[in-house]
Amino acid sequence: MKNNKDTLSQLTNGILTESMDIGTKEYEDFKLLIRSKVSEASKDERIKIALLGLRFHMEDYLKSKSKTIEVGNFIKQFVQLIEVKQVEFAKYLSIRPSNLSKILNGERRLTIELALILEKLSNIDARLWLRIQNKNEIKRIQKISSKSINKYRLKELIN
């Protein structure tokens, strides 16, 4: 990239199409430019940008085979990004703080209703929140019940 002003005009016009290698000086300069623009943004704009980052993180997690991240951790991140205390968030949702805490810590499931509320608040699809929970539950059950599940064979059923 030639300079920050040129890069910024490309970003504004939506035509930045050059690829960059992560870890290069060019990439680091680009990150600094983005950070400087974010710092100039209003609180609402910063939150929208942060929520977009959260959505990408959630989507990346679904594609990865990495260590399990509970859906409650993503909800915690959301609450932190919007700069609201968990107690205030629970009150806003009309649930007890202890119930919210159990969801955040993975002791209770995320309900479809809460996923829809999160979608409305975050603009992150309810299905994405629920897919994370489902991915994690499938992993857990596969670990625990692999022997009992592996005994099933279609060939035995249809013969």
Gist of the model:
By secondary structure, the protein is mainly α.
How does this model look, in words?
The protein is an all-alpha fold. The protein has two domains: 1-40, no CATH class; 42-147, lambda repressor-like DNA-binding domains (434 Repressor (Amino-terminal Domain)). It has helices at residues 4-13, 25-40, 43-63, 71-81, 86-93, 97-104, 112-122, 126-150, 154-158. The radius of gyration is 21 Å and the shape is flat. The mean pLDDT is 87.
Biggest sheet, open or closed, and with what strands and sense?
Answer: none
Order of helices and strands: HHHHHHHHH
The top level CATH class name of the largest domain: Mainly Alpha
Instruction: Please state the overall shape, judged from the principal axes of the Cα atoms.
Output: flat
Average pLDDT reading: 87
Number of helices: 9
List keywords for this structure.
159 residues, mainly alpha, 434 Repressor (Amino-terminal Domain)
Give the topology.
Elements: H1 4-13, H2 25-40, H3 43-63, H4 71-81, H5 86-93, H6 97-104, H7 112-122, H8 126-150, H9 154-158
